[in-house]
Design goal:
453 residues, alpha/beta, Rossmann fold, pyruvate-formate lyase- activating enzyme, six-stranded parallel beta sheet, 19 strands, globular
Length: 453
C-alpha cells in the first residue's frame, strides 16, 4: 500500500435515517476535514464512500444493506466504510459476513473516525465499535464541531442529548445509543450562538427525547435551556422535535407564550392510546391523558401545531384498540400524524410478546389498519391546510426551482422533511431567509403562496 500522501483524500457520505444521524454525519465531515479530507457531492470521484446507516427498524436496516450493495456494484474498486447505527448494533456480524464492505465503524465516539480511515487506507479491514467516550463534564457530544451542514440553507439541527433511558419495550435505540447522556446547557448555547452568527434562521433541537434532557444528572433541564435560549438576541426560530408525552413539562408552555421565537410546534409520539397496549410498550398514557395534554397545549397556545406518530400491529393490538385509536384521531384533530407497522426487533423486551414471528396474516392486517388510519388522518390534515388559505405566514425559503420563478419553503407549522412544503411564487428570493407570504391555495399536502406586499 502506498503512503498516505498519495491517497485520494476525498470522500462521499451517504446519510440514512433520522436527523440525529444527520448531525453525526456532519460531525464526521468536520473531523475528516480537519485531517485534510474533502467531501464531494458525488461518489464518482471520491476515494472513500461512507454509508452512515440506520438500524432502528427492519425496513431501515434493509435500506442500509441495499445502499451498500448498490455502491459496491457501481464502484467495485472503491473503499466503502459501513458506519452509523446499524454498524454499532451489528458490527461484529457485519464485519464477519458482509464481504462487500471494507470496514465497520460504530457511532459512539465519532472522534475516532480518522483512526478508522487511517487503518482502512493502510490495508486493514477495521472493526471499531467504541463505547461512549470519556470526556470531562459529561459533554460527550461533538455535534458542535460542524461547519458543513446537510440541511437546506437557513436550518440546522442541534443535538442536546444522546441515547435514551425510557426503555420502551419495542425500541432498539438504547441498544444502539445507550442511556441518556445530556450535554451541558452552556455548550448548547455556544453552539446555537455560532449557528445564528453564521446566518442560520431555524434551530431544531433534537434528542431521542427532549423531555429527558438533564435527567441523567437528576434534573429536568429543558425549561432552563429554553430560558437561556430566550436570552439570545435576534430573530430566529427554535423548534422542539420529539417530546415524550408521558414526561411533558407544562412549564415550557409559559416560556413559549413569552417568547414567540420558540415555535409552538409539538412533536409528541403517542404511539397508541389504549392503556393495555401502552403498558405493554412500557409507556404510561391513555386516550384521556393524551386528550388532556392536547387541550392544555391548545388552551395555552391556540396557534400550536401538534404532530404525533402511532404504531399498529404491536403484539396484542386488536380491532377494538384500532377503533379506539381511530376515535382518538377524530376527536383530537391533530395537525400531522405518521403511522408505522410494528417491527419486531431482537433483544428488545417486546421481541417475544405473544408470538414468535410476525406472520404474513398479522402483517397484512396491520398494513390494512395503517392505511385506514392514514386515510382518516389525511381528511383531517387537508381541512387544517384548507383553513390556512388566505392567511399570512412567515416562510423560510429552502431552495429555488430553476427557470420557474418558484421557491420551496416551510412555515413555522412545518418541520423539515415530514410536514409538506410551501411553494412560493416570486423572483430574487434568497434561500435561507424568511419572507412574509400569503397562502393562496392548497395542493395536496403542500401549499402555494405569494410574497405579501
Amino acid at each position: 500500500m502506498k503512503q498516505s500522501h498519495t491517497i485520494n483524500k476525498t470522500f462521499y457520505i451517504e446519510n440514512l435515517g433520522c436527523a440525529k444521524n444527520q448531525v453525526d454525519a456532519e460531525t464526521i465531515i468536520f473531523m475528516l476535514g480537519e485531517s485534510g479530507w474533502s467531501r464531494l457531492d458525488s461518489p464518482d470521484e471520491a476515494g472513500l464512500i461512507i454509508v452512515n446507516t440506520c438500524g432502528f427498524i427492519s425496513s431501515a436496516k434493509q435500506e442500509s444493506v441495499d445502499t451498500v450493495l448498490e455502491f459496491r456494484s457501481k464502484y467495485p474498486d472503491k473503499k466503502i466504510l459501513f458506519a452509523g447505527c446499524m454498524a454499532q448494533r451489528y458490527g461484529d456480524r457485519l464485519h464477519e459476513d458482509f464481504e462487500e464492505i471494507d470496514g465497520v465503524f460504530g457511532n459512539s465516539d465519532l472522534s475516532l473516525i480518522n483512526e478508522v480511515v487511517d487503518l482502512l487506507w493502510s490495508g486493514n479491514r477495521p472493526l471499531m465499535l467504541p463505547s461512549k467516550p470519556s470526556i470531562p463534564e459529561k459533554d460527550s457530544l461533538q455535534s458542535f464541531k460542524r461547519k458543513d451542514l446537510l440541511s437546506f440553507p437557513g436550518s440546522a439541527y442541534v443535538k442536546i442529548a444522546e441515547g435514551c433511558s425510557n426503555l420502551c419495550s419495542f425500541c432498539a435505540i438504547p441498544l444502539i445509543r445507550g442511556k441518556i447522556d445530556s450535554r451541558l446547557i452552556d455548550s448548547i448555547i455556544q453552539e446555537i450562538k455560532g449557528l445564528l452568527a453564521s446566518g442560520i434562521k431555524e434551530i431544531n433541537l433534537i434528542a431521542q427525547d427532549l423531555s429527558s434532557f438533564g435527567m441523567d444528572r437528576g434534573q429536568k433541564d429543558l425549561p432552563e435551556l429554553l430560558r437561556e435560549i430566550s436570552k439570545l438576541e435576534g430573530d430566529f426560530w427554535i423548534r422542539l422535535l420529539y417530546i415524550h408525552p408521558d414526561y411533558f413539562q407544562d412549564e415550557i408552555l409559559d416560556i413559549m407564550a413569552e417568547d414567540t421565537r420558540i415555535l409552538p410546534y409539538f412533536d409528541l409520539p403517542f404511539q397508541h392510546v389504549t392503556p393495555k397496549i401502552l403498558r405493554q410498550m412500557n409507556r404510561k398514557g391513555s386516550s384521556e391523558s393524551y386528550s388532556e395534554l392536547i387541550s392544555k397545549i391548545r388552551q395555552k397556545l391556540p396557534n400550536s401545531t401538534i404532530r404525533s406518530t402511532f404504531m399498529v400491529g404491536f403484539p396484542g393490538d386488536n380491532i377494538l384498540h384500532y377503533r379506539e385509536l381511530a376515535l382518538f384521531l377524530e376527536n383530537s384533530q391533530l395537525d400531522w400524524v405518521g403511522f408505522f407497522v410494528y417491527s419486531r426487533e431482537e433483544n428488545t423486551k417486546a421481541y417475544d410478546y405473544g408470538f414468535k414471528g410476525f406472520d404474513k396474516m398479522r402483517s397484512r392486517i396491520a398494513r390494512y389498519r395503517k392505511k385506514s388510519l392514514e386515510i382518516l388522518q389525511q381528511e383531517i390534515t387537508v381541512e387544517k391546510l384548507n383553513s390556512l388559505v388566505d392567511t399570512v405566514v412567515p416562510v423560510l425559503i429552502e431552495e429555488e426551482i430553476p427557470d420557474e420563478d418558484l421557491y420551496i419553503g416551510r412555515s413555522s407549522f412545518q418541520a423539515p422533511d415530514v410536514d409538506g412544503y410551501i411553494v412560493v411564487e416570486g423572483t430574487g428570493l434568497t434561500p435561507g431567509e424568511i419572507y412574509t407570504c400569503r397562502i393562496v391555495r392548497r395542493n395536496g399536502f403542500d401549499l402555494s403562496a405569494v410574497i405579501e406586499k
